[in-house]
Amino acid sequence: MSKEIQGEPGASPKASRRQFLARVAGTAAAVSLGTVAEASPTPAGSKNLNVLWIMSDDMAAELSCYGSLARARTPHLDRLASEGVRFDRNYCQFPLCNPSRSSLLSGRKPTVTGVLGNRTDFRTAHPDWVSLPQFFREHGYSTYRTGKIFHGGIDDPKAWDEVGFDETKAAAHPFSAEHVMHIAPGPVPPPPPGIPGPPSTPPPPATDPDHAANSDRIVVVENDGTGHPENHSADLAIDYLRKHRQGQKPFFLAVGFSKPHSPPTAPQHFFDQYDADKIDLPVNFAPWPTVASDIPAAAIRKQNADLFIRRGASEHEAKEVTRAYLASVSWADWNIGRVLDELDRSGLRDTTVVVFVADHGYQLGERGKWSKAGSLFELGTRVPLILRAPGASGNGRSCYRTVESLDLYPTLLELCGFPRPAGLEGASLSPLLNDPDAAWDRPAFSIWSEDGSSIHGTAIRTERYRYVEFGGAREGAKRGAMLFDERADPLELVNLADHPTHARIRVDLSAKIEQYHAASASSGGSSSTEHG
Q1: Contact 216, 208 (CB under 8 A)
Q2: Which residues contact 321 (CB under 8 A, 6 or more apart)?
């Protein structure tokens, strides 16, 4: 790895989007499925290691330690990144909450879990599978959950000895010390042809599947967050750590935060950290969902799912919503810092593996999209991942290899000294924890389903290229394709899928997508072909 890349974690957050993304782009195109370098000794490999698993919802790699282009303030996650290994190119397997979480927590690809939407319970579909926390519980660990780990309304009762804050029951006691921030609308052009505009009257809640009235707004917490579910989740994790300082059993503590998921929410002082007038909108910002002429229509949904639902975004409103998203990120960072501080105070730092990961990425107005759902672009699937393992020789460095969230299950088993069970997918990241520059030739795959039952798009990401095919699992690029050279075009502005100079690259990557779906089908997965 060159000196330039080794120095990237200290890159100025004031760099332009193109300058920053070009700097962090990889130096090799690893387009073969290949195999991982032979596993090196684990950093610890002790069954006495605890696990602190921290998850955030809808958090893109918009952190200061990732060179946040919007200048996000995340000092606590920055500190964790400086103490562990920051994975710069980690990708989720599905840009939606439940399919992504079900995949990484079960250790199976979405094409194998069959969980392709937010309403499918993986435990109902696979009663005999052993989830990640369940594995630790069955191997002598105390397991505790507070906040959102599996998808809201869905949990794994086999996984936990105890549940602290259960977000699925929070609606029974709603938090009320908050108010909605009203933003004056600005001028918005009419929607492009085929894009639905605002309805003449808002739909009633019972017929509003997008829950627009609740999601598409900015919420300001009127105190420091005391009593709010976000703070409460951290409070319970802190209490658990205090009680388990001298625990007789190792623990698997899972702490989930729902922010920055819409509606973007935070106490006022986190909003005060950002000036909306100083926020730069993306170079490909659009007021409505928009695709260029060379981008397949299937690449962008015609209607946003989280923010700016059935309405256009003026530049003024877009900056205010981005500010609210950043405030929400900073609030999550603050709560994460509280938990990490207690881990240190409790004397558990040297015996605890710490994982921070989000479920998927997010788009903040790029191509007019304000969501993650359906995004097989870099922004929709790239996910922050920081892993601090006691004794790992790679701690304090960044890794620029292409990895998947699916790799976390086997990684934690190896770190804690457990053998890999049959049926588990993904690869242990232990070699990269010891040497972030170690040889690694595994691409990352992500899929999308528009209807929750059939596959509509598949993306492969190597260290240099992103290639996406829109169509069913075995239909190839029936509805179009995208190919981006992430080194030369980190903003993904030029689609090379039909360029003759990249024809062989496209053929190679398309073949790997075919292999991916064939492997899923052979393992009894749900790589169904779309019809209609």
Answers
A1: no
A2: 183, 218, 264, 307, 308, 313, 364, 370
